[in-house]
Amino acid sequence: MARQYENIEMTGATQRDSVAYEMVADYTSVGKTVVLPLRGFSMRPFLEDNRDKALLAKVPRTLRRGDVIMARLARHGSFALHRITRVEGDMIEMCGDGNITPEVVRRQDVIAIALGFYRKGSRKLDSVDALSYRLYWHLWLMLKPLRRWLLLVWKTYRYPRQMFATLQDRIKRKTT
Question: How many CB atoms lie within 10 A of CB 87?
């Protein structure tokens, strides 16, 4: 039997506040799930700022390489949603898919784990248990030595395309 969750969806300005992240910790600790709009660029190219959402839940007893977690960063008290690259005892190394440098957190700093993502405005959950998702993160972690160059190519290709599309839209609006 599938486990039923009571979803809490956080929207608007509240999701930018540290209070919102404390709410995520509170809700997930009692077994509720939280749908959190994502902010920032650290999980590019898979997840986009202001476009995608994460379904977050209570942290299981064991965390594994490849899990996407929300953790409190000790050095400046902020929070990050990043992928685990290594687990050694109580220490967890995590890194955003769009980052080069990993961060280390303690197990007790992890406040939630991602069950899946709502991407590109879809209402369909991309589960972290799906084969396509697992293949993606295995491949992305294997390509870590090339990540800097892959991200550069991705940004070089993506931004001119977006700028061109925006320019085309502006020209269409002026001519109509």
Answer: 16
